[in-house]
Design a protein that fits this description.
13 strands; 5-stranded antiparallel sheet; membrane; 35% helix; single chain; alpha+beta; transmembrane; oxidoreductase; 18 helices; Uridine Diphospho-n-acetylenolpyruvylglucosamine Reductase, domain 3
Length: 439
Amino acid sequence: MSDLEAPLRPKRKKVWVDYFVQFRWILVIFVVLPISFTIYFLTYLGDVRSEWKSYKTRQKEHDENVKKVIKRLKQRNPSKDGLVCTARKPWIAVGMRNVDYKRARHFEVDLSAFRNVLEIDKERMIARVEPLVNMGQISRVTVPMNLALAVVAELDDLTVGGLINGYGIEGSSHKYGLFADTVVAYEIILADGTLVRATKDNEYTDLYYAIPWSQGTLGLLVAAEIKLIPVKEYMKLAYKPVVGTLQDLAQAYCDSFAPRDGDQDNEEKVPDFVEGMIYTPTEGVMMTGRYASKEEAKKKGNKINSVGWWFKPWFYQHAQTALKKGEFVEYIPTREYYHRHTRCLYWEGKLILPFADQFWFRYLFGWLMPPKVSLLKATQGDAIRNYYHEMHVIQDMLVPLYKVGEALEWVHREMEARRHPNCSNVHRCWSLLCTRSCF
C-alpha cells in the first residue's frame, strides 16, 4: 500500500467529549445565540453611525488612529518586547480553530478602531477600506449603488484584512482571481513605525506582491484599495443536478465555467459565479450565476427567491432539492446571494444546532442565526477545542482544475467524509469554488 493510500490515522473510539459536543446546542441556544444577536445589532448600529459621517471625517479619524499605531510601535524595545502582533484575541478570528502563537511573548498593537469604509470612488471604481471592514458591511454600502467588490466572500463576518493576509476565494474567482488579486494598493505600517503605500508599480512593489498570504507577518495593514465592478439587482442562478462518480462530478463542475472550446474570454460563455455542492460521493449540484436586472427578474414566469429571509430553507439544502426536481432557474437579490451561506455557516450550523434547519425553528428563532464563531470558540473550552483539532476539518484547497476529481477522491478517503448519525448527510457536503489560476 502506497503512502497516499494508507489511512492518515486509525479510527478512534468515542469518548466523553463526543457526547458533550453532541449536546452543546443547549449552551448555544440559551447563551451564545442571544449574545450573538446583541453583538450583531450593536455592531450594525456602529456601522450605520460610521456611514452617516462624511468621507472627510472618516479619513481624519483614520489618520489619527494611524498616528496612535505608529506611536505604539515607537515604544517597542525589539530586544525585550518580542515580535509585533495585533491585540486581537485568537478566538475572535472567523475560523473554528484557536491559534497558539499569541501565547508566546509578543508586542501587542491595537487595531480595533480600523473598521470603516473610508471612500467609495465611483470614477476610479475603487473602494478604500480599513482592515476590519467585513463583507456584510461593505456589500451593504456598495450594492445599493449597483457596485460590488469583484470577489465577495460569502460569510458576513469575514474581514478585508483576513481575506488579504490569509486568502479569500469566491464563486467569481474564476474571473477575478483570489480576493488579494483585486487589491490595487495596501497601506502598511512596518515594524519600525514607517507608513508605506504599496502598489504593483511603485518602490514598494515587492511588498505589494508579498502581503497576500503573509498572515500579517510583514507589517500592519491599516487600509486597502480594492477594485469595484458594476453589478445588477439580481443574480440569475441555474441549478444543475449531477449523478455519477466523483470524477463525473468534477467534470460537471469544470464544464460549468470552462467552455470546452477554450473560449473562456467570451463573456457570453463564462458565467459570473460558479459553485458546486457535493452531497454524497455520487450526487452533486452545480450552480452558475449571471447578474440580471430588476426588469428581467420580474418578467412574467420568472421565480424570485429571497433567500436572505430568516425563515427560508438553508441555501445548501435548498440547492439539494435539484437532485429530486431536476434543473431549474431562479432569481436571487444580489446581496442575498453574496451572503447565502451566512445564516447556516455553510453546513456548520447543523453540526452546532442539529434541529436549526427545521421549519419550526427557522420561523420562530431563525432571526437569531447565525451564532458568532468567536463566541462559539470562546465557550468551547480546551477539551472541545482539542476535539475539533483532531476530528473536525474545515479546509480550503487550491488544486489545478484537471486534478479536481483526484482531489475529491483523496478527501473522501482521507478526511473520513461520511454520514454522521445526528447530522443527516452534512459531513458529506463539500463546496467547490475555483480560481482563475486553476486553468
